[in-house]
Amino acid sequence: MSATNWLTPNRHAVLANLAVRGVEQGVLTARNECIVGC
Fold first, then answer.
1. 10 phi and psi, to 5 degrees?
2. C-alpha pair distances (Å), 5 with each of 21, 22, 25
3. 11, pLDDT greater than 60
4. Distance between CA atoms of 29 and 21, rounded to whole angstroms?
């Protein structure tokens, strides 16, 4: 994410993007744990 994105007034889009990234990271983490633990 570039610095200009943080400066945009469209905070909702930025927060939504961060939320999507968080969900994706959580899915990747759960998948990796399942590969190791299952």
1. -85, 70
2. 15, 17, 20
3. yes
4. 12
Length of the chain in residues, anyone?
Answer: 38
8 A C-beta contact, residue 31 and residue 37? no
Count the neighbouring beta carbons within 10 Å of the beta carbon of residue 22: 10
pTM of the model: 0.49
Comparing CA positions, the residue from 22, 14, 16 lying closest to residue 6 is: 14
Instruction: Please give, one letter per residue, the 3-state secondary structure of 1-38.
Output: CCHHHHHCCCHHHHHHHHHHHHHHHHHHHHHHHHHHHC
